[in-house]
Amino acid sequence: MTNTPLRPARSAPAARGPEPAKRRSKAPWLVGGALVVVVAGAGAYAATRHEKPVAAPVAETTTAAAATTPPVEPALTVLPVGRKASEGTLSVAVTKTECGLTEVGPPDLPLAAEGEFCLVSVAVQNTGKEPRLLDPGAQRALDRQGRSYRVAEQAAVFVNDQDPSLLDEIPPGAIRQGVVPFDVPKGVTLTSLMVHKSPYSTGVRVQLS
């Protein structure tokens, strides 16, 4: 009598009999899925064998960038050939003179001349033991009639945008190259550059070509 209620409980595991069949029915799907993955992987591998290496475009881009990078010019150790003069510890060589320009600066933000620009290319060496500055405001240019012209200081910033610049202090023994610009009336011919070590110095004349 006491064991009768437990008999249905013993028969309960029999109801789980179909489950192995369900698990077995999933096996073909798993095998089929595995085959699909293998086939897809083999196809991807075959496709990648025909692809170009990824590193090639990077190398080409690097080569192109290197080709457009301007070479770094070595620092000068002696003044270049030109018309030379010295005042104090500043030695100046005039290497080129270009006149008749109506504007200077970048194309998108040009600076127009009131008359025309004369650009005097120079190399300046500091022969002293202390840093020196070639003061743009102290420099002058003379024409055939002896008339004096001041440096166009705003234009000097535009035409000396390199680093290091002629407008920076020059270390002892160093040479800086740059341009000294003058805004003169049209038709004026400059004949000489008056180099001053300071606004109050006598100055020294350098003939222009």
TrEMBL record:
Any Pfam family: DUF4352
Entries under InterPro entries matching the protein: DUF4352 (IPR029051), Immunoprotect_excell_Ig-like (IPR029050)
Keywords: Membrane, Signal, Transmembrane, Transmembrane helix
Residues in DUF4352 domain copies: 81-203
Region (Disordered): 1-25
Superkingdom classification of source: Bacteria
Transmembrane annotation, as ranges: 29-47
Chain coiled-coil ranges: none
Organism: Paractinoplanes ovalisporus
Keyword field contains Transmembrane: yes
Ranges annotated as biased composition (Low complexity): 1-18
Annotated protein name in UniProt: DUF4352 domain-containing protein
Keyword NADP carried by entry: no
